[in-house]
Amino acid sequence: MQKLGVQNGQLTQCSSKPNCVCSQAKDEAHFIEPILSKGTQKQTKDRLVAILNAEKRAKIKAADSDYIKVEFASKIFRFVDDVEFYFPDTGSTERLIQVRSASRVGYSDLGVNRKRIESIRQQLNSKS
Known about the structure:
- The protein is an alpha+beta fold.
- It is built from 2 helices and 8 strands, in the order E-E-E-E-H-E-E-E-E-H.
- Helix content is about 25%, strand content about 35%.
- Strands 3, 4, 5, 6, 7 and 8 form a 6-stranded antiparallel β-sheet that branches. A two-stranded antiparallel sheet has the order 1-2.
- The radius of gyration is 14 Å and the shape is globular.
């Protein structure tokens, strides 16, 4: 399993497999826009935690002031996807959330990780 977390302000880069998206990816195939949200870091994080807690088959595994790691299990086979949210301090009133969502096993995810992040983005922005 890849080492996850934030190192030097960066989330782990995606492998060459098409089962990962990351807002800090250097290639277009894996790149996804970071999430922007209004409010303080604490308000944004609290809203995000509430959204994640409402998700079926999601377990928050780590939650620090600037980082959240979640495991999502697929419905049938219980494959695990690792999802990370990093809140760097930008000094702005608009929160920038760097994101990464990747399948642990397999090659293709049929777009599941990208759809998940877009769904979370939509929910977070509808609550801000």
